[in-house]
Amino acid sequence: MSIQSTIEAAASTLTPSLARIALVVRENPSVVIDNTINELAAECDTSVASVVRFCRAIGFSGYAPLRMALAAELGKEAAQFSARGAYGSEISDADTLQEAVSKVAALELLAIEETVARLDFTVLEAAVDAIDGAERIILYGLGASRFVAEDLAHKLLRVGRNAHIPADPHEAVAVSVLPTASTVAIGFSHSGSTLETVRFLETARTSGATTIAVTSAKDSPLTRAADHPLFTEVRESTFRAGAMVSRIAQLTLVDCLFLGVAKRRYAETVDALQRTGQATRALRG
């Protein structure tokens, strides 16, 4: 995982003083390179000791190793994206629409690349095995994560799999508590701490279902409730409420899961897609 993605994923679990540092670094990673540890502490309204704790929280022994590693990462990314004219600081009010769109596109491309590069294929294979052998697949997420859950459910239904999305948190817990044989429960949450989604996955696991999590947070309640956790690598834009980059990364994992399931029964999948496509073609006008 890149340093910036690590900070993004860890932000929600940090103490207030460390979270302030994370916020400043996420908005402008160059602040670490351009400032001494004392200057960064002052800018974040915290202590030097807190900056050291922040470094350790994201896997570094101190400030100097973080500066060196982040400088290398930013240099690599600047070279990678400079040709596209999209790499740089966060989206700002001064950006033109074209500049803002280019920055979002760069972040989304980076999210796809980092998510696939860091993907644990052993876990992915286990998740595909579970879905392929399931008699019932329950998917749940809230907000933008619900749209991602719906996308996977739609794909699975198109190839004849019994996929279901509960309508609300109460229904999610109700259906997940039923001890139906060969059930797989899949929870989607970028933060990994959405209470309703965590409760859904915990209940399903307690009831004997195989559980899969799609999240960016490795140390999170959702991850701990999952038999097979799959992780996105994401750096969200300023407009996090729109869940733009995180949604794209989650959809990447959805496509990986679906491709894995589809390949297990290749001929059957192709036939199902052709038949369902023909059945709906007449409705398109």
From TrEMBL:
Keywords: DNA-binding, Transcription, Transcription regulation. CDD domains: SIS_RpiR. Residues 1-77 form the HTH rpiR-type domain. Signal peptide: none annotated. It comes from the Bacteria. InterPro entries: Homeodomain-like_sf (IPR009057), HTH_RpiR (IPR000281), RpiR-like (IPR047640), RpiR-like_SIS (IPR035472), SIS_dom (IPR001347), SIS_dom_sf (IPR046348), WH-like_DNA-bd_sf (IPR036388). The lineage of its organism: Bacteria, Bacillati, Actinomycetota, Actinomycetes, Micrococcales. The keyword Transcription applies. GO terms for molecular function: carbohydrate derivative binding; DNA binding; DNA-binding transcription factor activity. The keyword DNA-binding applies. One of its GO terms (biological process) is carbohydrate derivative metabolic process. Residues 127-267 form the SIS domain. It holds the Pfam family SIS. This is RpiR family transcriptional regulator.
